[in-house]
């Protein structure tokens, strides 16, 4: 509904509208009841160079238009159906809470009978609606995660509100966090809550980070083609600049092979900057940029052009898993299919790299550790830019349409418990203590194994083999 309304607001006021989601909302799911489809007439392009060509002369005139539009949007925000008041009950209803997004749901769990002004349209703020709400309560609290965006505007507008004086400026405002904050504020008389109020019944307790620790850190999927290259890279101890994608998980133990990750496409520019900064010094670590196929197409190509142009001595590893895996499995220009799964012209990454001037380009199978090792060893020694493309489709794609998986197993008689196989960080490999043996040995969960063979290649005593070979 918000998306539909965003388009309507954009059309009505001729303005960009940002649909802002938070982490918790983005990670949630639920049933959706689709509405009736509405057909809209395509208006065609509007030829108006004074509006769309933002040269300085036009920009100065458009400034007046933008300010007028903001006034109109400010008035609309007071009428927007996404902004509404929920009167409270009893004494709790004398406390007014201004909030938005998932924080509203958290607050309702903790303080269900307070009065609420729920905001879905937050910029410009609905000051007239806020003023009406303020007259119905004795105290105003602003609940917002991270920065006091709304609170600062309300204070500047003359409203007496409490926000970050009570609630933390970092982390999510989870129910326990809100509860602790309200208790402490009530005890210090910062907010007025009856001494026998239920939320004061328990002592406050610190929210320790360990409460949110998972049994294991996030990790690459079993059979992920990114695992092998990271495992081999670790041997050479390079400066590794990373990027946005599944492979960002390579920063976590036991692979621990990433030194930076800022935004999409930054890995190549970061690597080039490091090479220039360290040139002429005694710092001799190889410099490697790691980027996925989809991210490379999105915003890595221009970085590679700069690397060639500036003759930066770095190695770029393009981890090509033939999909946009991390964020939904979408197609991209190098898959040969459109987002609608229709065949189209396929971008050949190695041809593209050569066309912009990279002379050293090679493609390797990331499941072949020896080939990956040879490629990395040679390219990090090269005295010019180089590109290694590790090409193997995403393990999740293989599960959907690939050949039948034949899992690997560990021969417990051969296993010496060296834990070298655990160094690849595959969640299909677990440890077991066998009866009569003091050595902790490895075991492979057959239901998780995808048959990639990486573990078998790293085992020093050949204790891991294909299930068929039992």
How are the strands of the largest sheet arranged? 5-6-7-9-8
Q: How many distinct domains?
A: 4
Most strands sheet: 5 strands, parallel
CATH class of the largest domain reads: Alpha Beta
Q: Which residues sit in consecutive blocks of at least 5 with pLDDT less than 50?
A: none
At the fourth level of CATH, the homologous superfamily of the largest domain is Thiamin diphosphate (ThDP)-binding fold, Pyr/PP domains
Describe the structure.
There is one protein chain. The protein has helices spanning 2-13, 23-26, 49-52, 56-79, 101-110, 127-134, 149-156, 175-187, 227-236, 266-278, 293-309, 349-355, 369-379, 395-401, 454-458; strands at 84-86, 95-100, 115-119, 139-143, 239-241, 287-292, 315-320, 360-364, 386-391, 408-410, 429-433, 440-444, 464-466. The protein is an alpha/beta fold and 470 residues long. The longest helix is centred in the N-terminal third of the chain and has 24 residues, at 56-79. α5 (101-110) crosses α8. It starts with a helix and ends with a strand. The mean pLDDT is 92. The chain contains 15 helices and 13 strands. It has 4 domains: 47-79, no CATH class; 84-205, Rossmann fold; 227-400, Thiamin diphosphate (ThDP)-binding fold, Pyr/PP domains (Rossmann fold); 403-469, Alpha-Beta Plaits, CATH 3.30.70. 33% of the residues lie in helices and 13% in strands.
């Amino acid at each position: 509904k918000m998306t539909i309304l965003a388009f309507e607001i954009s059309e009505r006021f001729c303005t960009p509208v940002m649909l802002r989601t938070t982490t918790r909302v983005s990670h949630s799911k639920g049933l959706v009841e689709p509405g009736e489809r509405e057909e809209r007439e395509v208006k065609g392009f509007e030829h108006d160079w004074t509006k769309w060509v933002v040269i300085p002369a036009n920009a100065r005139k458009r400034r007046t238009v933008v300010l007028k539009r903001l006034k109109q949007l400010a008035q609309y925000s007071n009428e927007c159906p996404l902004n509404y008041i929920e009167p409270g009950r009893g004494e709790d209803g004398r406390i007014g809470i201004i909030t938005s997004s998932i924080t509203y749901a958290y607050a309702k769990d903790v303080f269900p009978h307070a009065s609420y002004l729920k905001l879905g349209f937050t910029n410009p703020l609905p000051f007239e609606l806020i003023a009406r709400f303020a007259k119905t309560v004795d105290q105003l609290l602003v609940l917002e995660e991270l920065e006091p965006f709304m609170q600062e505007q309300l204070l500047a507008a003359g409203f007496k509100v409490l926000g970050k004086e009570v609630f933390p400026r970092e982390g999510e405002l989870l129910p326990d966090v809100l509860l602790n904050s309200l208790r402490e504020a009530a005890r210090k008389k910062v907010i007025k809550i009856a001494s026998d109020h239920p939320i004061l019944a328990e002592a406050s307790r610190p929210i320790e980070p360990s409460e949110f620790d998972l049994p294991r850190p996030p990790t690459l999927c079993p059979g992920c083609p990114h695992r092998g290259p990271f495992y081999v890279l670790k041997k050479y101890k390079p400066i590794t600049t990373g990027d946005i994608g599944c492979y960002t998980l390579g920063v976590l133990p036991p692979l621990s092979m990433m030194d930076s990750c800022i935004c999409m496409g930054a890995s190549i520019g970061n690597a080039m900057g490091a090479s220039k900064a360290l040139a002429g010094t005694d710092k001799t670590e190889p410099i490697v940029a790691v980027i996925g196929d989809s991210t490379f197409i999105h915003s890595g190509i221009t970085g590679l052009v700069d690397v060639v142009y500036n003759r930066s001595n770095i190695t770029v590893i393009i981890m090509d898993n033939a999909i946009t895996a991390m964020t939904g499995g979408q197609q991209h220009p190098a898959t040969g299919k459109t987002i609608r799964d229709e065949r189209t012209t396929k971008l050949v990454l190695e041809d593209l790299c050569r066309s912009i001037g990279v002379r050293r380009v090679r493609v390797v199978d990331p499941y072949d550790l020896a080939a990956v090792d040879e490629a990395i060893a040679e390219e990090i020694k090269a005295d010019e830019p180089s590109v290694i493309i590790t090409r193997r489709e995403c393990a999740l794609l293989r599960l959907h349409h690939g050949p039948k998986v034949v899992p690997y197993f560990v021969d417990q008689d051969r296993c010496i418990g060296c834990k070298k196989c655990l160094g690849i960080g595959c969640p299909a490999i677990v440890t077991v203590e066998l009866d009569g043996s003091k050595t902790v040995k490895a075991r492979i969960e057959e239901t998780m194994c995808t048959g990639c063979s990486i573990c078998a290649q790293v085992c020093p005593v050949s204790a891991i083999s294909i299930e068929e070979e039992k």
